[in-house]
Structure to design on (307 residues):
């Protein structure tokens, strides 16, 4: 889609909504230069100036404001057309776009895709791993059909079709004896053993840091990483403890390569993963079936299911 006329309308709409090319670039995960080129082509096609720059920032011209309003209608009309076409062909073909945080990839999203493809083998899927903030932006802009986010705030334009309630656990090798076989531990006890944490780009890290502040605990990780898979590997080796939601290690728990010890601090027991759609847009038939598949997998986890 990057070089299609529809992309030009989508890019311009996001720039008008967010107020800058850079903000739109970050939300869409598209290079700023590519967005600027497509908007320039849209302006040339329409024969009007869409954006003005004064050196301190940009402003949308009166003509641009009209185009921005119509751009959203064009995007929604094409998405509805795609949904109608998918229904017309009886889901013999189609395409679904899904974005997820890394922690939900192996335990929730990939099993749902596997189940989905057993029923609809000719439907293709575009799967992207993003942060929760970027997933929300992609849902709002129409860049994805379904988002699976972790501990995200409520948004009036988004609807959660399923929720998996979760907590943060001390995840480690089954033979690890740093907690003297305690069934539950406090964050203060976790701080006394070697720990690995996600970096500050993860909402999970902000949740952990907030809990540590409330408990008056100083966490000194021996490893910080931008990879959930690396945290799982750290736990499996027996080096120490990784702080992770149970969903992120669901497959490891099934294979008994790790154990997840509950942490008693209340602020680490109120996490959740949500399967989200944009409530103002119509899902295609293929996307509806994928959402249903994700919901069915979500039901297999404790305290989870459709809303």
């Amino acid at each position: 889609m990057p070089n299609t006329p529809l992309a030009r309308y989508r890019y311009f709409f996001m720039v008008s909504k967010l107020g800058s090319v850079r903000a739109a670039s970050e939300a869409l995960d598209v290079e700023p230069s590519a967005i600027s080129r497509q908007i320039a082509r849209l302006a040339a096609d329409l024969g009007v100036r869409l954006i003005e720059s004064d050196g301190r920032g940009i402003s949308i011209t009166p003509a641009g404001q009209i185009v921005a309003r119509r751009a959203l209608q064009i995007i929604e009309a094409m998405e509805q057309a795609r949904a109608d076409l998918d229904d017309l062909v009886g889901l013999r073909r189609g395409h679904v776009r899904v974005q997820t945080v890394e922690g939900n990839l192996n335990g929730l999203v990939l099993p749902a895709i596997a189940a989905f493809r057993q029923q609809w083998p000719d439907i293709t899927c575009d799967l992207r791993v993003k942060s929760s903030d970027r997933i929300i932006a992609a849902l709002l802009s129409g860049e994805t059909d379904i988002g699976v986010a972790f501990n995200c705030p409520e948004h009036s334009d988004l609807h959660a079709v399923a929720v998996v309630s979760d907590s943060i656990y001390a995840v480690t090798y089954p033979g690890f004896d740093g907690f003297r076989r305690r069934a539950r531990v406090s964050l203060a006890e976790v701080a006394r053993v070697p720990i690995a944490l996600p970096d500050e780009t993860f909402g999970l890290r902000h949740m952990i840091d907030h809990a540590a502040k409330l408990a008056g605990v100083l966490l000194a990780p021996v490893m910080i990483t931008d990879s959930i898979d690396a945290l799982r590997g750290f736990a499996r080796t027996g080096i120490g403890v990784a702080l992770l939601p149970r969903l992120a290690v669901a497959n490891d728990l099934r294979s008994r390569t790790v154990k997840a010890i509950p942490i008693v601090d209340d602020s680490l027991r109120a996490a959740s993963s949500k399967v989200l759609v944009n409530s103002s847009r119509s899902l295609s038939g293929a996307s509806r079936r994928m959402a249903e598949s994700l919901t069915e997998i979500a039901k297999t986890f404790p305290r989870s299911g459709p809303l």
